[in-house]
Amino acid sequence: MPTARPHPISTVEVKIDNCPWQKAKRDDSKAPFTWQTWMLDWKPSPGEHTITTRATDTAAVVQPAPDDPLFANKKTYW
Known about the structure:
Elements: E1 9-16, E2 22-23, E3 25-26, E4 38-39, E5 51-57
Antiparallel strand pairs: 1-2, 1-5, 3-4
């Protein structure tokens, strides 16, 4: 069975607390299949915050969240 070929990252989005997803600015100077750097202008208020990120590739495949059912019973050895 052939394996799917990876696609380069096209966008990175950031969600802070329960606010809507915001598009982050990516550094497009990197090679397509390397670690991608990004930034988001944000002025935090005092206190704790939850920051979540997700990437979408050029085939419009969105990175699944850690609580996605796809990962529910999987274990990692990182």
